[in-house]
Amino acid sequence: MNQTQLDFSISETLAVIGMTRARDKADIDLSKNDKNGLWSNDVYNLLLEYIENVNEFMTEQFREWTFDKIEQPANARSYGSIIRLAAKNKIIKLIGYRRVKNINAHSTPAALWRKN
To answer: Which of 34, 42, 67, 97 could form a disulfide with 109 if both were Cys (CB 3.0 to 4.6 A apart)?
Structure first.
């Protein structure tokens, strides 16, 4: 019996493209009146502040924490590219997965992060 091999590289590529587009749109839409620079840079700096005060977190928790600190983008995926950049820069590390609390996401598993 032959078992079908799944290729997740296309899915991963499409996910990165989607997050990047969402971030770029947020930078365009929300940085117009920001004298400090791009929305994504501001969110990255907020992430650096946030991880000093939590043991572990999911992106949705960080995003909720930012609600009263920065204007929110039209697409929550904008935060994904910020998280990926922090992981690439070894600021945070993936430690597992948990189910999201967002009702619209139907308890899908999502990454659990910790400061590196």
So the answer is: 97
Token pair listed for 68? 């009263």
What tokens does 85 get? 């950049």
Handedness of CA 47, 15, 93, 108 (dihedral sign): positive
| Kind and range of the H or E run holding 95 | strand 92-99
pTM above 0.85, yes or no: no
Task: List, for residues 91-108, the tens digit of each pLDDT value.
Answer: 999 999 999 998 888 889
CB under 8 Å to 76, separation ≥6 — which residues?
Answer: 22, 60, 63
Per-residue burial over 3-26, b = 16 or more CB atoms within 10 Å of its CB, e = otherwise: eeeeeeeeeeeeeeeebeebbebb
Domains and CATH numbers, the chain: 10-115 (1.10.10.10)
Structure tokens at 74: 């039209």
Q: Are strands 92-99 and 57-58 parallel, antiparallel or unpaired?
A: unpaired
DSSP string, 3-15: PPPP--HHHHHHH
